[in-house]
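Before a colleague's protein record goes any further, I have to sign it off. I want your independent view on whether this chain really folds as the tokens say. The record follows directly below this note.
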Amino acid sequence: MKMVAKEDIEEGQDLTPPLSPLSYSLQNSILSSADLSAAFRLLSLFQSPPSTCPQPRLFGLLTNRDKLLSSEEPDVLLKIRDGARELAKARGNFSDDVVLEEAVLCLVMTNAVDVQDKSGRSLGIAVYDKEFSWINHSCSPNACYRFLLSETNNTPAFHYQPKMRIVPHGWQLNFLTWKAYQLNFLPIKWQSETEQSLGRVQLRGIEMEMKMVAKEDIEEGQDLTPPLSPLSYSLHNSFLSSADLSAAFRFLSLFQSPPSTCPQPRLFGLLTNRDKLLSSEEPDVLLKIRDGARELAKARGNFSDDVVLEEAVLCLVMTNAVDVRDKSGRSLGIAVYDKEFSWINHSCSPNACYRFLLSETNNTPAFHYQPKMRIVPHGKIDVCSSSELAQGCETDDGPRIVVRSIKRIKKGEEVTVAYTDLLQPKEMRQAELWSKYQFVCCCRRCTASLPTYVDQLLEEISVSNMEFMNLSSDDNLLMDEADKKLNDYMDEAVTEYLSADDPESCCKKLENLLTQGLQVEKLESKAGKSQLNFRLHPLNHLSLNAYTTLASAYKVWSIDLLTLCSDTDGHHWEAFNMSRSSVAYSLLLAGATDHLFRSESSLIASAANFWANAGESLLTLARSSAWNLIVKSGLSASKFSLQKSKCCNCSLIDRLEVDSFIRQAQSAGLKNISNELLDCISNLTGKVWSSLIHGCLHLQVIKDPINFSWIDKSTNVSDFCTHSNKSCWTAEIISRQKSERYTNEERVNIFLLGVHCLFYGGYLASICYGEYSHLASHLQNVLYDEDNSIQ
């Protein structure tokens, strides 16, 4: 049973006239509880009892009797059994047949709504007819209700009688035609110490869901919008104390005149979220809004206490601003766009992404065509009058944004993007979305009855050294504690690396975490204390973060060694080993992310970036002059160019430029290109992986960084880990390696592997960012500018 709108309804409109209750119980109940008093009133409405009972519905309302009587909660069963007997006695029924009383009491328990006065104080309960009771629950509702109480003498009378604008869905139902007492649809009077009438309930439309949908079928890798200019932005140094305030100040200057009433739920057609943000339980959020609104007011010359407009605009920026990044991923500031972009909702499994066009990027080629607008607002919506904005409010000098599909999108399907990092587990994504935007994500990935394959891996932790592997509720709390400690350990290691510039210490700490896990002491009642060992799955989100940090730290460590001791062969050896470890972790990160991308295609942007980084690292290693120390008859760096390289297994990258390859690949399709390139990548990795990880104790347990099918055959994360607490690189290992000469064939294979990784990353990037994206240009430079890549 549900109610639906029988016409288009704007937000903030009444959906029903005032509805009187079927039954109610306010303040002092005539029986031992409000539920029983309301049930007694309902029973008095019958002229004669139903011929058969129990019925699934009475008065057209669901009783839920069968479900409630099969409840596993003893308090519920006791309430129904004892309550039915008390009702029967009050009606003069002293038989054992209390089925009708049970059904009516269950009806009240199922359909009653809490009646509250204007201060929010509970007055009792009421049950309404199907026009209200058939309205179902949602955690993202589109309507609310209010009560009209006779005690509220200052409640103005209606200037008009609202009409009924909602109807039952599929109103071809034949309910049992029990003869009930003729209800008087005037307010029902009830006497107590002071005369009150039960509040009539009235529905009112609230915030409508804004979303953008495709107006035609769209293939993956296509632009959905032309370049969109921002309404407001703040880049680099803000002229106020924060980027949010600077962008809000620009917004305020767009008003031709302030809104007649404020705050509005929307300004410029964009949601402000002011009410939600001001009711936040996070004190930092409230302080930011209060102090920021005062700073904005002063900057505008407003020295009064009325800063409601400033609060609303600042909340609008906090809700709708998007982080602007350059081609290297460095944050430049924020920007707020019109509804064509801001109405695109979030999903943890989105079908679109976006890129920025910055005026500073002079080498960004112009569009060969002007992309058309291929998405439209859902429904007929007109929430923003053009008079609200100053003419020409959109600026051409700010960062423009283009939305692009990463999946096939059907006509009428909602277009979504990601507001958060998709390589985080569900709880972390939900916490960030609530903290920043005050909503709970209900996308397909978040609402799956069981965690998706990707989410399961991202949070997978193994417990060892336990007599019994089945965790009790206390052990689950211990697992939460261990997860927090693992996060804290990771954060501490990364923070120390970034602040103290100590890559060696960071590498030792993170590899110790990956190999040894985390020891947690558990107190047991009989056996005393025992040590539990918590280990990260190789695809846990913390493992991925560790690979990212280790790739960077080993690279910095290598550079530091060459800078400080450039004249010593031993340090060249050690620096070369650090470079190999950095490359190995980059390749492992790319392969791990690609494995997740195979199950969740919305991770394509992450996969593209990690493959490109791995390819660049491999090419840099292959072109390094350090090879002359370890290969007796080394090849010159000039031998390592794309023009002089050829893959014997595929023809995709044979003497092709990146942009030519991308155009050829796009015509072949993602699946075919991915499979062909990954076959070559897997084959070449098998030839060089042992060389890349030689001497690195943690990496040696990774059997294959590209094909992770071996993970599914292992039953415990500890199978992936070693038990050594030695440093990854020791003088003994380095000395032994000096006698184990590498070959030119390994160097060539490393170069070819790097080329394949770059082309694969470039192709994935072309789907996300377009054929002429900054990443494609960067990859072209990496491939052909070998003179600048030699170290």
Observations:
- The first helix runs from residue 34 to 43.
- Residues 421 and 428 are 9 Å apart (CA to CA).
- The mean pLDDT is 77.
